[in-house]
């Protein structure tokens, strides 16, 4: 009995000792530090009951909302002063507390900054601004008309000192600015429905040209016309010089709904087999042409390729295929390369004739299809940078291919001008019909129309 009592006492002692060791030796956790945030008037005084109510305490790195303050005709700021520096916050801003902080409430009178026509008779109300003296106003663009263009702003009617749009002017009170204009002639460019697109001023020595336009709805601007509402056959193309100093021109807009696929795919009568060689645009065609539809058509193509790929890879594949066919079989080869290396035109003209002669030994008739259209404005919209390819570069490349390879007694190719056909009759950029409006790759409908046009030309040339 005594032994059992002794064991219980020892057990209780050990439990008490353990509790003291485990818990009694730990220091009490300190309460989190809170910092004071004080709100005062512009002189630094907590001068009224509302300032005392706004005061608060907050733990480090927590956010508070600065009190809302407003009054008609004035703008308020909460100012944080650190030495000689001042930082301004708007009422309602979120502020992260890091230490004890004091804000000063400063009030500034608001002034009206107004913009008028050159004669001061009419205000551009949409440009009016309310600002305080610690701000600077950025002068806006100047509205233009058909017989004048805006060049800047003056502080008096017909003033001589002209400030350019985009410059800043310190707010000194209520201010008025007057448009400075220059008389000029202009050409008016409009959408196909007549809505104003742009004015191009024509009084300078430089002769302006028609711009590329990238519509974001998927329709294609083919060019320009004096006639409103046209969908095909533009009179002027992107890059053409504008022929007059005045007048109105309309976009010729090909609607995506008109980009219809051919109902039946054409197979030329003059040839037993046709080979297409090209880049990603040809890849787009190949993906749509099934062997059971056109069993006698072969494609050798790869995306982002040009002349070097043709020399090192594509020609070997093409040569292997044609030499394994019966020699009496009539073959047509359509080359559709160049959009990825327009700069390489001299090399194309130098080396392609020799490859053509080698293939002719296997009863191949050689065709060169134009590099087909691009829309540089759509490419710019898609990549957000100036494109390497342009309408002019494509046209220059095609012209040199035609003159260098496809004309004269020593010509080695027959030219298929699909580019001009598409520019007249319409095309759509929408890669694989997947909503990729990059101005470079075509919709399925346009890809099939290119195929159809090329195949039909084989029976005509």
Provide a quick synopsis of the model.
With 461 residues, the protein is an alpha/beta fold.
Structure commentary:
The chain is an alpha/beta fold and 461 residues long. Helix content is 25%, strand content 26%. It has nine helices and 22 strands. It has a five-stranded mixed sheet with strand order 2-1-7-4-5. Strands 19-18-20-21-22 form a five-stranded parallel sheet, sandwiched between helices. Strands 9-8-13-11 form a four-stranded mixed sheet, with no helix packed on it. Strand 20, helix 5 and strand 21 form a beta-alpha-beta unit. Helix 3 crosses helix 9 and helix 5 crosses helix 7. The mean pLDDT is 93.
Keywords:
alpha/beta; 461 residues; 9 helices; 5-stranded parallel β-sheet; 25% helix; flat
Q: What does the main sheet amount to?
A: 5 strands, mixed
User: If strands are numbered along the chain, what order do they take across the biggest sheet?
Assistant: 2-1-7-4-5
List how many beta strands DSSP finds. Answer: 22
Strand percentage lies at 25-35%
Number of helices: 9
Would you tell me the overall average pLDDT?
93
Uncertain spans, ≥5 residues at pLDDT below 50? none
| Gross geometry | flat
The helicity comes to 10-25%
From the alpha carbons, calculate the radius of gyration and give it in angstroms: 38 Å
Structural class: alpha/beta
N-to-C CA distance: 124 Å
């Amino acid at each position: 009995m005594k032994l059992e009592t002794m064991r219980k006492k020892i057990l209780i002692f050990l439990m008490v000792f353990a509790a003291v060791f485990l818990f009694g030796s730990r220091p009490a956790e300190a309460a989190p530090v809170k910092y004071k945030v004080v709100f005062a008037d512009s002189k630094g005084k907590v001068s009224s009951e509302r300032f005392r109510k706004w005061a608060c305490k907050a733990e480090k790195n927590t956010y508070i909302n600065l009190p809302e303050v407003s009054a008609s005709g004035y703008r308020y700021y909460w100012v944080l002063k650190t030495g000689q520096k001042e930082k301004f916050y708007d009422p309602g801003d979120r502020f992260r507390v890091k230490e004890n902080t004091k804000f000063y409430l400063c009030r500034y009178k608001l002034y009206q900054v107004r913009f008028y026509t050159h004669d001061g008779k009419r205000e551009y109300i949409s440009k009016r601004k309310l600002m305080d003296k610690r701000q600077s106003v950025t002068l806006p663009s100047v509205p233009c008309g058909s017989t004048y263009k805006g060049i800047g702003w003056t502080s008096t009617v017909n003033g001589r000192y002209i400030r350019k749009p985009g410059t800043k002017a310190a707010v000194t009170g209520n201010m008025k600015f007057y448009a400075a204009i220059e008389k000029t002639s202009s050409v008016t460019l409009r959408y196909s429905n007549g809505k104003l697109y742009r004015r191009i001023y024509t009084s300078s020595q430089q002769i302006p040209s028609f711009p590329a336009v990238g519509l974001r709805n998927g329709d294609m601007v083919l060019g320009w016309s004096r006639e409103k509402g046209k969908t095909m056959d533009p009179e002027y193309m992107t890059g053409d010089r504008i022929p007059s100093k005045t007048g109105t021109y309309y976009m010729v807009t090909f609607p995506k709904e008109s980009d219809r696929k051919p109902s039946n795919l054409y197979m030329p009568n003059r040839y037993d087999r046709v080979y297409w060689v090209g880049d990603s645009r040809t890849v787009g065609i190949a993906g749509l042409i099934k062997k059971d539809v056109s069993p006698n058509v072969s494609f050798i193509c790869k995306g982002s390729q040009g002349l070097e790929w043709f020399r090192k890879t594509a020609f070997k594949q093409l040569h292997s295929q044609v030499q394994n066919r019966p020699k009496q079989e009539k073959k047509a080869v359509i080359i559709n390369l160049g959009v990825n290396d327009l700069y390489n035109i001299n090399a194309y003209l130098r080396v392609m004739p020799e490859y053509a002669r080698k293939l002719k030994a296997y009863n191949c008739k050689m065709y060169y299809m134009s590099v087909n259209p691009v829309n540089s404005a759509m490419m710019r919209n898609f990549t957000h940078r100036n494109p390497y390819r342009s309408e002019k570069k494509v046209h220059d490349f095609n012209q040199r291919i035609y003159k260098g390879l496809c004309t004269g007694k020593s010509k080695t190719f027959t030219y298929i001008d699909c580019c001009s056909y598409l520019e007249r009759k319409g095309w759509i950029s929408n890669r694989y019909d997947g909503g990729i409006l990059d101005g470079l790759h075509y919709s399925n409908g346009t890809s099939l129309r290119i195929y159809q046009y090329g195949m039909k030309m084989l029976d005509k040339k």
